[in-house]
Amino acid sequence: MNDKRPKNLDFTTLRLPLPAITSILHRISGVFVFAGVAVLLWLFSESMASADGFARVEQWLNQLPVKLLLWAVLAGLLYHFIAGIKHLLMDMGVGETFAGSLFGAKLVIALSALAIVLAGVWLW
Question: Which domains does the chain have, with CATH numbers?
Answer without folding.
Answer: 17-123 (1.20.1300.10)
